[in-house]
Amino acid sequence: MSDARTEIFSRVHKALGRESLSSQQRKSLDERMASAPDLIRPQFSDDLVEHFANQLQSVAASFVRVSNTEGIIPAITEHLDSLGLNHKLVVAPSLKDLQWPKNFEIHSGRARDADLASVTGCFVAVAETGSVVLLSSPESPTTLNFLPDYHIAIVKSSQLVRHMEDVWTEFRQLPGGIPRTINLISGPSKTADVEQTLQVGAHGPRSFHVVFVEQS
Amino acid sequence: MQSNSHNFKKNVKGALQDKELQIALAHVQEGFINKRALAVDKLAEFEQLREQAKQIRNHTLEHLDYYLERYEQAVTKLGGQVHWARDSKEACEIVLNICQQAEAKSVIKGKSMVSEEIGLNEVLEQSGMDVIESDLGEYILQLAEEPPSHIIAPAIHKTRDQISDLFVKHHAQYGFSERQTTVPNLVNEARAVLRKRFLEADVGITGGNFLVAETGSNIIVTNEGNGDLSCTLPKVHIVTSGIEKVVPTLDDATALLRLLGRSATGQEITSYTTFSSGPKRPEDLDGPEQYHVVLVDNVRSKMLADEFREMLRCIRCGACMNHCPVYGSVGGHVYGWVYPGPMGVVLSSMNLGLEETKDLANACTLNGRCAEVCPVKIPLPDLLRNLRRQQHEARLNSLAVRYGLNIWAAIAKRPAIYAAMMRIAMPLMGALGRKRGRFRYFPLAGGWTAGRDLPAPQGSTFQSLYSKRTRQKT
């Protein structure tokens, strides 16, 4: 039995009617890879933050705008209270040093099944789609985004980009290389598998709340 | 998966009489078609994006060897492993082997059509593993012991009532004794049952909507978050995907993602778009310790060589089946294999052979809606016509059809004879059918007139009207 990889490549070559690529062809493909092609981006002209907020609302996420970092904790408190939740949170390690009030029970790290609500930051957020982008790292474990019933994400105005392509531009400049997981989150978990009826809270968070922080 | 495509005609009769199925199919029309139309209307660049997507997919397929190599290098560099499978059997063996190495007892699955294609669940179950589908639709079908009937809404043929019955029967063992009848309660019950399974699973298996050569990532697109839990919680993550799913860069993937959600469910973007690249990094607090990708060929390299290459552009959105009047009348099961609807007819014929699937391509009305909505502009009606031609050449159609077509071809290729015959036949038919204006039965067209009347021709033939007009104009 010949090696499957060798055989599949030889089938592909045969199908394409050629042997492996010439060094010149390879070079031009390398170039295409190195400088991502300029592709069509959907245009929109309204205010970036408003567009982001509207897109989030259209995917059943909630959005609140605060004028500076001091507004973060009151906004979180208000959100938890409006859902009738206690003040017990699992937070991303990057957020453990926020000035959490004394009546909050905070632990940081990865999420466990018992964790009801999580708070994370983000890498960037995309106005085009109303997406919050999170990269996995010790400071931002992926389980925080999926295990708890309620997910709150903090987005700073400097983190808002226009198109999805802008995420990749930012991302390629990171020193550490690609993380294990990139999550583009656009709304809460939902399903329409029962009679095409939309129901939130399928397997992941039942609500997704964005606290948007204006910065001068 | 075992094929039942040869029973197509028989299955169609059953489906048309299945009242619950017909109720369920009505949701396809309300749901998918209208939502897609709204999303397309909102995006001015949609048509340009379709053309661009076609170019990206064509470019990738023309250089498939290059992009597969680059993809493999990128995955390997991150500490992941790429496995190559010539066919379903080999793919299943590879996955089984990985699971056994990991001493897996429990396997949780995100939705993967390739895993359906290769018949993975049976193989793992036969080796004593507990395999759980976590996409709600797939889970419902696993309880019902049925295959999916739609590639993105697998349980679309099930009514709420039927789902309630299934949950009562299968969830009593977990202490759920009350029969739930509302959608929120049904979803909540499934969530509670499946959450436990996510936490105890040793291996998570997902598909790959796209594979990115630039970064070695597999992309999964979900709304439920089940795929994410499947690839985050277990200590091993296996991706099953076809070799054609590779795209060059993150930007190319983005261009395709803009079309996928809109074409599938009318969503600009799904709740979760997730890029997984390699196993967890040493310092990460969660994520799998092993990352494997199983790349399946099956007939893909063969399609790359022949007139069906364009089918490999497919991004599995399901728009073709949502807009297909045949699918809309009979649902997905009658097609008898993994992929239903127009794209399924082509893929089934390629995978199972023309003989097993010969009725499928002939059930097409060539109305062309599938090609109009396809986000990567696959000329599905042309491909279906190619299948019919191949059947004809392989003498797989019935004698009557074959001779009929040959006689028709002989006449149609000789315009003088054709016009002369029409000049006699049309007035004759017109005269015979004048009383009713239609025929309830017509010789040699019994199958056609069984379901509708044939209108009697009125006045002159098209050809004579056409030449008359041309003369008048000059």
Overview of the structural elements:
The complex is a heterodimer of chains A (216) and B (474). With 216 residues, chain A is an alpha/beta fold. Chain A folds into two domains: 4-34, no CATH class; 48-213, Rossmann fold, CATH 3.40.50.10420. Chain A is 26% helix and 23% strand. Chain A has five helices and twelve strands. Chain A has helices at 4-16, 23-34, 48-58, 72-82, 164-172, and strands at 62-66, 88-91, 105-108, 117-120, 124-126, 131-135, 150-156, 160-161, 181-185, 190-191, 199-200, 207-213. In chain A, the strands form three sheets. Chain A has a six-stranded parallel sheet with strand order 1-12-7-4-2-3. In chain A, strands 8-5-6-9 form a four-stranded mixed sheet. Chain A has a two-stranded antiparallel sheet with strand order 10-11. By secondary structure, chain B is α/β, with parallel strands linked by helices. Chain B folds into two domains: 5-301, Rossmann fold (3-Layer(aba) Sandwich); 416-473, no CATH class. In chain B, the strands form three sheets. Chain B has a six-stranded parallel sheet, sandwiched between helices. Chain B has a four-stranded mixed sheet with strand order 8-5-6-9, sandwiched between helices. Chain B has a two-stranded antiparallel sheet with strand order 11-12. The longest helix of chain B is centred in the N-terminal third of the chain and has 24 residues, at 19-42. The model of chain B has no long low-confidence stretch (mean pLDDT 94). Chains A and B meet through α1, α2, α5, β9 and β10 of A and α2, α3, α4, α8 and α10 of B. β9 (181-185) of chain A pairs antiparallel with β9 (272-276) of chain B.
Concise account of the structure shown:
The complex is a heterodimer of chains A (216) and B (474). By secondary structure, chain A is of the alpha/beta class.
Assembly form of the protein: heterodimer
What percent of the residues of chain B sit in helical stretches (DSSP H or I)? 40-55%
* Shape, per Cα inertia axes of chain A: elongated
Largest interface: A-B, 73 and 96 residues
How many domains make up the 3D coordinates of chain A? 2
Whole-number radius of gyration of chain B?
A: 25 Å
Specify the biggest β-sheet of chain B: 6 strands, parallel
In CATH, the homologous superfamily of the largest domain in chain B goes by the name NagB/RpiA/CoA transferase-like
CATH architecture of the largest domain in chain B: 3-Layer(aba) Sandwich
Domain tally of chain B: 2
Q: Can you count the beta strands of chain B? A: 12
The helix content of chain A, as a percent range, equals: 25-40%
Average pLDDT across residues of chain B?
94
